[in-house]
Amino acid sequence: MSDQRREELARALAALRRRLDEAARAAGRDPRDVGLLPVTKYFPGTDIEILAGLGCREFGEARDQEASAKIAALAGRLPDGVRWHMIGRLQRNKARSVALWADVVHSVDSVRLANALGAAAAAALGDGRRRAPLQAYVQVSLDSDTARGGVPIDEPDAVDEVCDAVAGAAGLRLAGLMAVPPVGADPDRAFGRLADERRRVCARHPSAVGLSAGMSGDLESAVKHGSTCVRVGTALMGNRPLTSPAVVTPVTSSSRTSERNPGSPAPPLFPEGSTQ
Length: 276
Ligand SMILES: *Cc1c(COP(=O)(O)O)cnc(C)c1O
Fold this sequence. Notes:
The chain is α/β, with parallel strands linked by helices. The chain contains ten helices and nine strands. The strands form two sheets. Strands 2, 3, 4, 5, 6, 7 and 8 form a seven-stranded parallel sheet that branches.
């Protein structure tokens, strides 16, 4: 792994931690109550090794196949205590595979998926292939456009049903709620609505206090509205390659700053030293 990439990630991580501290302080919260989940999807295992060397112990991945392959390749190369989070959309037929590598799933959005994951995690616990129950966030959709996943937030009975299914599954623990704001939405409004829903769900499930919310572009707003886990990709790793990680190596710092492809839809990089 290159020294240049190590320096780049070290700098981005330090800037991100300052940004998170600042966001917590601005919200009157203890920075230690806001977890940082580096999202390493599309980036190579060598980046994960570097981040582990910099003290990161939690990693978010969005696709079962990519995550399983990376984790297998990293066997024995990471410190103890590393935990893996599945943050992407999940089909029921992946439940058994995910239950073998994920410590936490952020994207449970149906009773059927909860049941499948619960059964898979219980089976893996039973035969020693996992040591702890699978922590599960119920994903809610803030605009009720469920094409991107999530239980419609304006259907509280449906949210309750999925939360109850997770809470009642032997292999699962209900961690809390997760959401991704709709494209173009005002993050303050979106996360405010999410915070209301979290209060409502917590009244029924008092231990489900987690809130997985906030990404590179909107983490300040998410922290203001109570996020306990921000999922950050771009601001830490740089822009993701636009095609499959199998055929493209991640862009380097030089191509990100001055020579980026014109017309690339990727969001601007978090500027170094800025607290944006
Ligand atoms: C990719 C991804 C992220 C990270 O997004 P960035 O804007 O790159 O920080 C967060 N959450 C989910 C569900 C993702 O798929």
